Known about the structure:
The strands form two sheets. Strands 2, 3, 4, 5, 6, 7, 8, 9, 10, 13, 14, 16, 17 and 18 form a 14-stranded mixed beta sheet that branches. The chain has eight helices and 18 strands. It has two domains: 13-243, TIM Barrel, CATH 3.20.20; 245-323, SOR catalytic domain (Immunoglobulin-like). Strand 11 (247-253) and strand 12 form a beta hairpin. The model has no long low-confidence stretch (mean pLDDT 96). The protein starts with 5 loop residues before the first strand and ends with a strand. The protein is α+β, with helices and mostly antiparallel strands.
Amino acid sequence: MKLENKVLLPESGYYKANLHCHTVISDGELTPEEIKKVYSEQGYSIVAFTDHERYRWHKELDDENFLALAAYETECCDFATGPDCWQDLKTYHLNLFDTDPTQNAEAKAQNLHPARRYGDIAGLNEYIAQMNDLGFLVCYNHPYWSLQDYNDYAGLRGLFAMEIYNHGCEHDGLYGFHPQAYDEMMRAGQKLFALATDDNHDRVPFGDPLNDSFGGWVQIASEKLDYSSVIQSLKDGCFYWSMGPELRGVRVEDGVLKIKTSPVEKIFVILKGRDCYKKLAPRGQTITEAQFPLTGKEGWFRIEVRDGQELYAGSNAYYLADF
Length: 323
Ligand SMILES: [Zn+2]
Ligand SMILES: [Zn+2]
């Protein structure tokens, strides 16, 4: 296979985004205005407001430095009664990101949710297809926290992405980082992107280590900070996820994968099959770049890096068939 030269992630031109956020409109503690203020102060330009079962477009928050994405989070479970039932309850949580809030506004305002029948994958996939038709990108959230395994998620269809890291779930049970689920989905033949998110509710104050804001985000490469440009970048996978490190340019040139990062200890390229490519810094040191020749037989690959604080960042999976 001849690999075309390609820029997979540009060196600069990113907007920092939290794509999973709860406010007082559902069970979060902050108002949308407060979210805008605190996230802007931390260098974010984009927040998707994903209140539970409440679709909202906070257009009033938009300005030249901030963009609010219209969204909501829905769930599919057999309703539990009592804390004992909740303790063992499997559930699907899906984030719905609106690609164009000016379309189908009446239908979206109904906060459509899937039938509450856990295990009815066909019914859930019908719901996802319906939401795609309405103009939503659908993300599968935090499988680890949801007590779900491969049998629960491998059959899902119509997903744009799934979470690879969820900061709120990290605090619930070290359930935050679950790259195995993402790899399993792709090894099952799916093609979807990976998001790191906060899922913040802000029930404990900023500064407390258990506060759930500012721990997982995506950096979206977009020419402009406007709704349609940002959505196009999401659809195209022009973004990467992070808990800390930065990817500062990824490209394929003359058959070689070239990666630049902020200082990290490990740069790995995970492949469809078992073997992977890797470069590690000597103990106590850091590296900021790595290059790996591609054979064209990788199937798909994704980049994952880890810094000295044991925080990860990574790319979406790239499919050799697309080169
Ligand atoms: Zn959730
Ligand atoms: Zn949530």
